[in-house]
Amino acid sequence: MGKSSLFAALRGAAAFEGVATWGGTDLRGLAPSAWLAWAGQRPGLLTGSIADNVALGDAVPAQSVVRQALDLARAGALDPALELGVQGAGLSGGQAQRVAVARAFYRHLRGAAPVIALDEPSSALDPETEARLWRGIRHLADDGATVLLISHRTSARDVADAVVRLARSEVLA
Description:
Helix content is about 30%, strand content about 15%. It is of the alpha/beta class. The longest helix is centred in the middle third of the chain and has 17 residues, at about 95-110. The radius of gyration is 16 Å and the shape is globular. The model has no long low-confidence stretch (mean pLDDT about 90).
């Protein structure tokens, strides 16, 4: 079990032993959608507009929050009305990654998830865009979000309140 597997367990996508709680409740008894906004290593975009992808699952999307989430994810230059093809065709890898991060931010900003979990959100970004993304993440954390961030990039440490290193010997399969 590695870092991404840890996030899979938090999302309810993998079984785990031990204890993990949120607000005093065992995570196994909570629907992940009730507390967690997640963006994984694969963007998972759908055919439809960028705005549809960011607000996925919201019955009454708030366009101003879509724009705010895109801005915080450093994807503000993208047109929310842009129609995407299958699996986000029409965007570069870095753009697709930032739209997926914006989706997690959107869920948090709409009050649907107090915790944001991001798995390698900057792997397809250049150093300048990555630094701006870190500032967006730090802004959300400063405003009260709990952010769990997996990153192999040492630059991620600069925005962290705490760093937890997982070595192979510390993670049980």
